[in-house]
Amino acid sequence: MGYLKTTPNKDGFFGNYGGAELPPPLVPHFKEITAAYERLSKSADFIAELRYIRKHFQGRPTPVSYLKNLSDLCGGARIYAKREDLNHTGAHKLNHCMAEGLLAKYMGKTKLMAETGAGQHGVALATAAAYFGLECEIHMGEIDIAKEAPNVTRMKLLGATVVPVGFGGRSLKEAVDSCFQSYVAQADTALFAIGSVVGPHPFPRMVRDFQHVIGVEAREQFLEMTGELPDMVAACVGGGSNAMGLFSGFIDDEDVALYGVEPLGTSSKLGDHAATITYGEDGDIHGFRTIVLKDAEGNPAPVHTVASGLDYPGVGPEHAHLHRTGRVTYTAAGDKEALDAFYKLSRHEGIIPALESAHAVAFAIREAKNNPGKSILLNLSGRGDKDIDYVTETYGFGE
Ligand SMILES: *Cc1c(COP(=O)(O)O)cnc(C)c1O
């Protein structure tokens, strides 16, 4: 049987990783979500409605583009990009947010809720809530609210309530804590929509399955364009949802090499990067077992990367598993390399990538010259409009 049908097991374990460590009041609610997902993922109505939404609202399928100018510039492998930047709202996150919204609707919930860091997940979820006529409650640290004003404005325009979180570091970790607290009190009527392949079971599996559409489309499109499968497939890894979406399309194709690209930030010193698999160790975070970056006390360590969507001291449990089995190779690219890729893709291809996605582009640029005659398919997980002010004010316009 194929990998996707057998992994994770029924308790949500990918090998040794995953599972659900929940506060007792939340146990029945996560059971309810798991049961609903298992039922609906086999329901013809649910699947048909999700297909309709993907085609007529999100604008799927997104294309695969051959990056000829970049390939010529690098010399070596042919580089292709799966264009999730062309998905509605400009990134892959809407793939799972629309599906989570649909799940909430079928479950009879009236509200979607989540935490957000830079605001990308908050905007995608607020979009889904508006579409389905659901309420939306987004928890966000006060520091992030000040830094990410345009996304706060977007969420409010879309009708979401943004709850400012003012305790502790006033950032993503506190926003998660705050949202969990608020959710406990309203779990009968609300769905906590986790924003990546992280969190307690069933989210790592469910979000992967909702993102699987990326890999299914890309495999078919690549075959149609070239008559063969790509030699190498690459994606950036924060929590790991865009990567699992693309990888899952090729996971049973043993000749296709898969690469996850983590953010190396400014150096390999703890605190300067968010390269969890590269430098972390086994541990628990936010209710599941995975690989974690820990400080001297064993708590989740502070992290840094120029791409705020990648700064998480954990990683989805499936990535920890695929690292241990060796099916996926994990590597890292630093801020400088990602910025260089950001400028190059903009200048030579007319595509301004999200800084997160620029890490996958950086990998392709680095590897192209070592792999003449081969092909590299990367996931362009999102567009870079959100990053242009920060990049040009901090680093200028590139060479
Ligand atoms: C949030 C985000 C990411 C990181 O999330 P994953 O779950 O690792 O995919 C990557 N790219 C973009 C554009 C994002 O918004």
UniProtKB/TrEMBL annotation:
<dbReference type="GO" id="GO:0004834">
    <property type="term" value="F:tryptophan synthase activity"/>
</dbReference>
<keyword id="KW-0822">Tryptophan biosynthesis</keyword>
<keyword id="KW-0057">Aromatic amino acid biosynthesis</keyword>
<comment type="subunit">
    <text>Tetramer of two alpha and two beta chains.</text>
</comment>
<dbReference type="InterPro" id="IPR006654">
    <property type="entry name" value="Trp_synth_beta"/>
</dbReference>
<keyword id="KW-0028">Amino-acid biosynthesis</keyword>
<dbReference type="InterPro" id="IPR001926">
    <property type="entry name" value="TrpB-like_PALP"/>
</dbReference>
<protein>
    <recommendedName>
        <fullName>Tryptophan synthase beta chain</fullName>
        <ecNumber>4.2.1.20</ecNumber>
    </recommendedName>
</protein>
<dbReference type="Pfam" id="PF00291">
    <property type="entry name" value="PALP"/>
</dbReference>
<comment type="similarity">
    <text>Belongs to the TrpB family.</text>
</comment>
<feature type="domain" description="Tryptophan synthase beta chain-like PALP">
    <location>
        <begin position="59"/>
        <end position="382"/>
    </location>
</feature>
<keyword id="KW-0456">Lyase</keyword>
<comment type="pathway">
    <text>Amino-acid biosynthesis; L-tryptophan biosynthesis; L-tryptophan from chorismate: step 5/5.</text>
</comment>
<dbReference type="GO" id="GO:0005737">
    <property type="term" value="C:cytoplasm"/>
</dbReference>
<feature type="modified residue" description="N6-(pyridoxal phosphate)lysine">
    <location>
        <position position="93"/>
    </location>
</feature>
<dbReference type="InterPro" id="IPR023026">
    <property type="entry name" value="Trp_synth_beta/beta-like"/>
</dbReference>
<dbReference type="InterPro" id="IPR006653">
    <property type="entry name" value="Trp_synth_b_CS"/>
</dbReference>
<comment type="function">
    <text>The beta subunit is responsible for the synthesis of L-tryptophan from indole and L-serine.</text>
</comment>
<dbReference type="InterPro" id="IPR036052">
    <property type="entry name" value="TrpB-like_PALP_sf"/>
</dbReference>
<keyword id="KW-0663">Pyridoxal phosphate</keyword>
